[in-house]
Amino acid sequence: MFDSLKESIETYIEKNATEKRRVHTEGVRHTAIKLAEKYGAGDMVLRQKAEIAALFHDMYRGVSGDILNYYVKHLGLDEKRYKDNANLAHGKIAAAVMEREYEITDEDLLNAVRFHTTGRPGMSLLEKIIYIADAIEPNRNYPGVEELRKTAGRDLDLACLQSLSNTIEYVRGENKYLDEDTVLAKEYFENRIKEKGEHL
Description:
This protein has helices spanning 2-16, 19-39, 44-56, 65-74, 79-82, 86-101, 107-114, 125-136, 145-152, 156-173, 180-196. By secondary structure, it is mostly helical. It is globular, with a radius of gyration of 16 Å.
């Protein structure tokens, strides 16, 4: 099942994604596999899930606004939150399509794609891997990415907190809509790290 699913989504990406999106997706796949190997203690299922989630995560990132809004409406997503907002909507749409068209029922896998942009409180190991892989894949180039890569190499929770904090600062600075899941995720990781006795 894993190989046929991988082949199916690879074919979709090859036919539908731009070159830039294909390069990014491949970067996320490579990074997610490395993180799964590092933090998964040899768990082959985690490695496979990380690869599948990485391939699916941006499959609706580059679609037109009309197509995006069509999916938002017909999938019953919150129009107030997701209409005309490709950044927030594309992960939710991809997860819904995974479930409906690819018959994927693994909730952890679906959530890894669903929340890869915003994060959320209580993220699983797989969710953290995809969230961070998307932020630090080799083609990413923005202020603070090198520091985030170093943090991700030693502590995923700290890396998530760092990335969430950067996102909140950026979104507020641009005066854009800030998803509540991102704010709650930041609070969750702050508390989690305090409980572990680490320094923020």
